């Protein structure tokens, strides 16, 4: 969906609610908790839709238990903001593109949406990548905040990542250290046996053949591409560049903030152009 289509679907409050309910982004019916689950009726109250029980009069928000509950700003503006977040507009650009939303509000919503991705990715079952005849580049990167002049985490994390250069499938795992035991367990969990794995010459990757992998290395102190085998890790390193640009665009002040941005990064890599639809399908509040 492009933004022009979205604007047409959400051109006013009525059409926005219809679009949300038709696509099951919010419930299209509600049951009264006080009247043996009698179905409630949708009514207008000062041009705002809500649920009301015709028997006992109990009312309920149509956004109950979603991140849209208790909105303080225009619904259409929030939908726009979610869309801009999904296509990776910076917070400043989103604030500019959405009318009457201040920078602080945009920041809070970006944080809220990142939190949603944390729970979505936590519930998403990841499949192993690679396989016989496949090449998976594996690398690790440390994300120290001092590098970006925005403070420093006490224990800045390592991210171990891998990408199948044939299918584009990826995995990323946040770890505190990158010792051999940790790296081997990650590979056994994330990569099919028989895969050709390409890494640098870090000791943690020694003897991967004993686990059932074909192992190629490239010595980055000498070459970016091994002159004999052609082995390189340029694809996974490109992924690091993308993630680090995202880190630079956010004010990260804690380990928890980093984890949320990491979840958002994984979410958008996985769902790509469907990120907006996926986040709209998961507006419910996670406990």
UniProtKB/TrEMBL annotation:
<feature type="domain" description="ISXO2-like transposase">
    <location>
        <begin position="128"/>
        <end position="268"/>
    </location>
</feature>
<dbReference type="GO" id="GO:0003743">
    <property type="term" value="F:translation initiation factor activity"/>
</dbReference>
<dbReference type="Pfam" id="PF12762">
    <property type="entry name" value="DDE_Tnp_IS1595"/>
</dbReference>
<dbReference type="InterPro" id="IPR053164">
    <property type="entry name" value="IS1016-like_transposase"/>
</dbReference>
<dbReference type="Pfam" id="PF01873">
    <property type="entry name" value="eIF-5_eIF-2B"/>
</dbReference>
<dbReference type="InterPro" id="IPR002735">
    <property type="entry name" value="Transl_init_fac_IF2/IF5_dom"/>
</dbReference>
<dbReference type="InterPro" id="IPR024445">
    <property type="entry name" value="Tnp_ISXO2-like"/>
</dbReference>
<protein>
    <recommendedName>
        <fullName>ISXO2-like transposase domain-containing protein</fullName>
    </recommendedName>
</protein>
């Amino acid at each position: 969906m492009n933004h022009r289509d979205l604007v047409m679907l959400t051109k006013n409050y009525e059409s926005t609610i219809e679009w949300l309910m038709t696509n099951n982004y919010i419930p299209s019916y509600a049951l009264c908790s006080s009247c043996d689950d009698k179905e409630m009726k949708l009514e207008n109250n000062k041009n705002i839709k809500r649920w009301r029980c015709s028997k006992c009069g109990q009312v309920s928000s149509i956004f109950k238990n979603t991140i849209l509950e208790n909105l303080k700003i225009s619904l259409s503006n929030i939908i726009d903001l979610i869309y801009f977040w999904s296509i990776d507009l910076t917070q400043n650009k989103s604030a500019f593109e959405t009318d009457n939303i201040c920078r602080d509000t945009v920041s809070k919503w970006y944080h809220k949406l990142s939190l949603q991705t944390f729970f979505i990715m936590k519930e998403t079952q990841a499949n192993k990548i690679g396989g016989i005849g496949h090449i998976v580049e594996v690398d690790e990167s440390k994300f120290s905040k001092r590098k970006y002049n925005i403070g420093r985490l006490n224990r800045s994390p390592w991210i171990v990542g891998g990408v199948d250069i044939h299918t584009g499938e990826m995995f990323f795992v946040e770890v505190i250290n990158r010792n051999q035991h940790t790296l081997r367990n990650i590979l056994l969990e994330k990569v099919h046996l028989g895969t050709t794995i390409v890494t640098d010459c870090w000791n943690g990757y020694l003897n991967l053949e004993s686990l059932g992998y074909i192992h190629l290395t490239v010595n980055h102190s000498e070459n970016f591409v091994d002159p004999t085998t052609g082995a390189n890790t340029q694809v996974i390193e490109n992924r690091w560049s993308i993630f680090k640009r995202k880190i630079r665009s956010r004010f990260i002040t804690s380990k928890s903030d980093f984890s949320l941005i990491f979840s958002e990064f994984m979410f958008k890599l996985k769902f790509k152009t469907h990120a907006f639809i996926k986040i709209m399908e998961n507006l419910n509040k996670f406990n």
